Amino acid sequence: MDSYIHRTIEDKFLRMNKFFKVVLLTGARQVGKTTMLKYLAKGENRTIISLDNDEVRYLAQADPALFFQKYRPPILIDEIQKAPQLLNRIKYICDNSDLKGQIWLTGSQKFSMMKNVSESLVGRIGIMELHSLSRSEICGYKVDEPLMFDIESLQKREQLTMPTSINDVFAHIWRGGMPQVQTANFEERQMYFESYINTYLMRDVMEIGRIVDTVKFMRFLVACASLTSQQLNLAHIASITEIAQATANNWLKLLVSLNIIYLLQPYSNNLLKRLAKTPKLYFWDTGLCSYLTKWPSSEVLLSGAANGAFFETFAVTELLRGYAYSSIVPDISYFRDSNSNEIDLFVQIQQSIHPFEIKLSASPNKRVVKKFDVIEKSGLLRGNGGIICMCETVLPVNTMDYLIPVNLF
Fold first, then answer.
1. Which of 15, 246, 321, 337 makes the best surface tag, with the fewest CB within 10 Å?
2. Three-class SS of residue 21?
3. What's the pLDDT score for residue 274?
4. Domain boundaries, the chain
5. CATH topology of domain 10-129
6. Global pTM?
């Protein structure tokens, strides 16, 4: 695997593999789950089985005991949601062995799968989520420590990352993080995303969501893509898609479960009254999002009206990826009150709220950090924050806030 791209989550996966008997890696189709696990299994005598294979899937569904007689641990089972019948047998294997990391699972349908997993394997399984490639993974640099926001941590992280330009950032945004498009030309990229939607996504939504009207679902998908980084307005999406709002809600839940869309929840606290209750919508992969909204090149996207929305989507999802793979899991939300005062990101680590604005600028207006005063005025504990932007280096705005280059994520 000479062209293998190392994933940030590898070390965390191996740590969990030494602690749990079963490790499950979830994530959207084609983001590289199986590729990563095959790489980590090199040198092991680990059986690798895909439940996309009809004969293997039938055996797994019909006779789980016989399946594990034929395919003995240590084993990697790909797309476990296709044979949930295996989970009780996996529980039996775990309960009769003290060996760690004997069973690796992958799955790409989060919600339906998690219900079965949590019921069958509670206490026996470690669960992690892999997303399409981050920019740092593509560039090949590794940052071991979780992202923190004091000046020393930011400057230390800056030494480990690569400087970037706005053209480079938008080239990544337009291309996205799917492994197969990293070296693709324009025609190959177009064909890849067309195939991805028709071969994987539409097949999954028909199987899981029992969706028959794929034309309207495609229209719904495009409508969601056109609204990335905006507050969710289901009534508006349902109206332009010509479906009932309840249907739109069900389809949105399906896209979240397939790791296509992420809903960033609004901050909620009794000390802050009249807060928004509507999440913001983001596409996990900006390449898929730019394909759906028909941006023909990164240059056109950069100069277009949606450039700020795509830059915010990039910054938010890069931050989410980083924390998903790290040793700490903060609460991440956004702030908006009834007067439409908004702060793009709240990152709560322990009791401290770290506030951030995201600006597509190399020298944003520093006065926007005045909005952060709402935290202390409400009696909450305020941590370091700042403006995530295209500046070249970390720069203080005041004693608490900094201009932060987006490449630090």
1. 246
2. coil
3. 61
4. 10-129, 135-408
5. Rossmann fold (3.40.50)
6. 0.93
